[in-house]
Amino acid sequence: MSADVRFVAIGDSFTEGVGDELPDGTPRGWADLAAQGWARGIGAPIEYANLAIRGRLAWPIVDEQLEAALALKPTHLSFNGGGNDMLRPRTTLERIADAFEQVLRRCDEEGVTMILLSGADPTAGLPLGSVVKRRGDQLSAVVEARLGGRSDVVRAFNWPDRELATGDFWAPDRLHMNARGHHRVAARVLTALGIEPDPSWWELPLDALEPGERLRGAAYYREHVGPWLKRRLTRTSSGDNRVAKFADWQTIHPDGISAA
Fold first, then answer.
1. Stretch 110-123: mean pLDDT, rounded?
2. Domains of the chain by residue range
3. Where would you find the membrane-spanning parts of this chain (predicted)?
């Protein structure tokens, strides 16, 4: 693989890194980790940008982030979306899959390698999780059917990973992965790219995690479900007034990160 790598990530909270926060509160997440592992794996700096913003639906990701990402002239572009759409039952899965096809079409036109991800499955811990799981299973099948003939698309599918779906990989809100989950996804992305990840990333020791309070019953609904319902009723988003954390290239060295 060429050392001249320019990797840009677009998406929602999954790609922004929510649930894997650094001590200063900044989200890190799988894309940051994959960029670092990529530089280490090839033994050379790479360029990395991340335009993802939490709360975005699939088509707003495409409409707001895709062209800005392509304007950076990347060699690789990762895309995941649809997690927020699946929580809205009126959204059709075919419409979400159309967004994936649009990203691939534009990557083809610009000569960019697409990295296709599915999100991890949070449904074991969610209210009405069986309904969301069914839609997630269906969406995975629809997207794969649309893009199945494309061997040049790098695939990192996390939804089928039953171990990743268990509680030890999830933040207290049960909707976002914790550091353990994000490291596992990063390991899968690197493996799909032909790069050997740190073996510990597949399953970080539990004692390496910052403890988080896992609420149950009414306390969980009050702390996590209630605010989500309020945003739906008021038509607001957790990503309102937020900007991309790395809207321009960052140079990732094999041993660290520095601004471009």
1. 95
2. 6-259
3. none
